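Postdoc handover notes: sequence design on the structure in folder B. Input tokens:
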């Protein structure tokens, strides 16, 4: 269960950083939110612009700390975000592994990290949802927000409460059912990609989180760690 403890900051460098630095002291399921982040981080060492009005939060998991748990945490988190948005009338899709898109534009990003040296001691899940931002400057063609879609402003505290409620229900839902939902919400299954200069059809995502690729009857699997997905998508998006 997450959200029993909720720590709120006006400003922090990054909610993921805060949890990683204080992991020993924070209990399982603690959520840290911030009105704004000075150095919000995205995947692949990119930054995550974090102006006021959006939702920035991270939570720590101390019960699911095997490497294999990471994919199911990713599934629970991304499906929960899609369901939160559904409640607001927004039907979004999950771009593998864990970007949430609406109308081909990103509305939410998720950054999952681990703490611990030789073994995983905790998992930190960071979520950034574009709520009330309407101008994304250079990223206007690539990003959107709840306000842009629904044409009205939203209270970020209410959205995080909805997330907590849905995530906690999903945690009690069978892994198999969550996986089915993850695939149902997937944006990538059925799409063409180029990988190592070969054109493939993404036919499936398997239970380990690997993408299953097809090329003239040959099946290739690629794992989250084998490739830079950003490159993969850049190639296909351009
Ligand atoms: C991505 O799409 O690259 C992931 C973006 C994750 C952003 C969130 S905002 C809250 C948490 N704190 C961070 O520094 N990053 C995550």
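Designed sequence:
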């Amino acid at each position: 269960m997450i959200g029993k403890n909720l720590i709120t900051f006006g400003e922090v460098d990054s909610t993921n950083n805060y949890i990683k630095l204080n992991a020993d002291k924070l209990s399982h399921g603690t959520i840290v939110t911030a009105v704004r982040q000075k150095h919000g981080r995205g995947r692949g060492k990119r930054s995550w612009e974090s102006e006021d009005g959006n939702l920035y939060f991270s939570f720590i998991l101390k019960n699911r700390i095997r490497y294999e748990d990471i994919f199911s945490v990713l599934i629970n988190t991304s499906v929960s975000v899609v369901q939160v948005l559904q409640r607001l009338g927004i039907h979004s899709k999950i771009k593998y592994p864990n970007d949430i898109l609406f109308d081909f534009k990103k509305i939410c990003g998720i950054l999952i990290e681990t703490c611990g040296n030789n073994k995983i001691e905790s998992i930190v899940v960071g979520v950034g949802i574009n709520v009330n931002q309407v101008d994304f400057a250079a990223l206007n063609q690539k990003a959107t927000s709840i306000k842009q879609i629904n044409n009205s402003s939203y209270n970020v505290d209410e959205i995080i409460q909805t997330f907590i409620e849905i995530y906690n229900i999903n945690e009690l839902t069978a892994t198999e059912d969550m996986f089915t939902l993850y695939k149902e919400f997937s944006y990538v299954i059925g799409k063409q990609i180029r990988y190592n200069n070969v054109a493939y059809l993404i036919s499936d995502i398997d239970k380990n989180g690997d993408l299953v690729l097809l090329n003239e009857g040959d099946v290739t699997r690629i794992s989250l760690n084998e490739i830079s997905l950003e490159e993969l998508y850049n190639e296909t998006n351009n």
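Context for whoever picks this up: The chain is about 30% helix and 30% strand. Don't rerun without checking with the PI first.
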